[in-house]
Amino acid sequence: MAPSVEHNATAGLQKVAQSGQQILDIVDQDIYWYVQEWINRIYGSHYGAYLAKSFLGIPLGNWVAAFGVFFLIYLFRKFLTRVVLRFLLHLARKTETVIDDLIIRELRSPIRFLFVIIGMDLFFHFLFLRHNPYVELLLSSMFIVDLYWMLYAFTPAIRTALHLYGESTGRISYELGNFIIRMVRLLIVALGIISLLYNFGVNVTAFVASLGLVGMAFALAAKDTAANLFGSIALMLDQSIKVGEWIRVNGVEGIVEDIGMRTTKIRTFEKSFVVVPNSIVANSNIENFSRRGIRRIKMVVGLTYDTMPTQIRAITEAIRAMLASHPGIAHDQTLLVRFDRFGDSALGIFVYTFTNTSDWEKYLEIREDVHIRIMEIVREHGSDFAFPSQSIYVEKLPDFFATVPAK
Length: 407
Hints:
Blueprint: H1 3-18, H2 31-43, H3 48-51, E1 54-55, E2 58-59, H4 60-75, H5 77-92, H6 99-106, H7 108-126, H8 133-153, H9 155-169, H10 174-199, H11 204-221, H12 223-238, E3 246-249, E4 252-259, E5 263-268, E6 273-277, H13 278-282, E7 286-288, E8 295-303, H14 309-325, E9 336-342, E10 347-355, H15 360-380, H16 399-403
Antiparallel strand pairs: 1-2, 3-4, 3-7, 4-5, 5-6, 8-10, 9-10
């Protein structure tokens, strides 16, 4: 091998070995020396004269080794990631919680990207460019991105932990858990951007201070958005509504589909999609139908005027007994069955009770059964339901009708 090439290779290796360790130099091992010695032996082989030729001041043998190592790691990064994940999952199986399993699965992509960084680190090592300021900036920036990517991968597991804690204690709602995760993710992204700016030499202190001034100006210009944000926080802390509940607020009635940072999305029973600002929701009267647990049955049973008093007493007692023993009626709630009015065309029996469910379909089923049973009771006691009608009484007919002979 030409002395100049050997001198350059040896000098380059000595430069790599003697340089101070940086953020990503933790992957450096003595194996680099053995690989370079193998490359040096190739320089003395039959193809040594060709491989000893330099391109951009670097021997072709080092170029081949650099690209070969990088593409080898890049091609096998999935396999290497699978090996690492299997080892971590083996350790996670020794614990009872499923949170660590979820974290390990979410780390798949960041670990795969880490092997790409290692491949690039080796690539620049073989080209004697590892300690070039621009290369160091590139690799350290990639490492920062991967580090915060790993932190971001923890958020699904944190969300699952919050939901499990909320289900067991009731202190954290599903919506509040999602809101906390959104804030954590926003914080991770913000810290990642600040770290990248600091890595590029930006004065982060002055930058953050300028962001504070910009934030104040933005808050004054977007006070409605800020009001919606604080409204969403108030809704989640108060837990007055949850996703999937049936509510009525500000004239809008339907099922809550999402509680975001700015708006609450409601699907009406006409299947319209209504978006209500959280500031309005937080400052309005909210009628939450899903929280009642029971539903009311209120009606007036109209009987014909030829129904006798004894029949009315028997009918009211029979209806009361039927409701008291009905399996779909809430027996610990108010139950009223009273003859309470003389209507224009009917004798009215007032019925007031509650079903033991708030589910609309089950409620309709129970109310239908109650109606049919009331019809059976009325017919069994010899009475009938009155039709809306009017009776006209004429005290005296005109003389003209009095003189007309009857046929």
